[in-house]
Specification:
Number of strands: 5
Helix content: 25-40%
Radius of gyration: 14 Å
Largest sheet: 5 strands, mixed
Number of helices: 2
CATH architecture: 2-Layer Sandwich
Order of helices and strands: EHEHEEE
Oligomer: single chain
Length: 119
């Protein structure tokens, strides 16, 4: 389990300029690389990746919109050497989950990534 320092996920609804989007994506990729290495996640054959978002408020959100963040995280896991590629041979992506808002999510929200080795 990795806890990302970012408190707001990128979403498919974001209307950022391409350069802003690229910068945000790079931040998620680099953060994931650092966290995976700090957690000493070894090279694995096949993994399942789940992104969980704990928002700060009760606004309605669509879990599918978080796929943009999930993709950046998976790219970071590849760059960290956890798996050779993020295609279905190595990575099973799980639909992102939006948790109930609460104290555990902090004042600004929280993001977690659960990585499980598949047989």
């Amino acid at each position: 389990m990795l806890e990302l320092p970012q408190t707001k996920p990128m979403t498919l609804n974001d209307r950022d300029h391409w350069r802003v989007k690229a910068t945000k994506t790079a931040e998620y990729v680099e953060t994931t690389i650092v966290l995976a290495r700090q957690a000493r996640i070894p090279a694995l054959g096949r993994i399942q990746v789940l992104l969980a978002y704990g928002p700060k408020d009760r606004r309605t959100r669509d879990p599918l919109n978080l796929v943009q963040t999930l993709k950046a995280v998976e790219d970071g896991l590849v760059r960290a050497g956890v798996v050779p590629d993020d295609n279905p041979l190595y990575v099973e992506s799980v639909m992102p989950v939006i948790l109930e808002p609460g104290v555990a999510n902090g004042a600004n929200g929280r993001l977690w990534v659960a990585i499980s080795e598949l047989g």
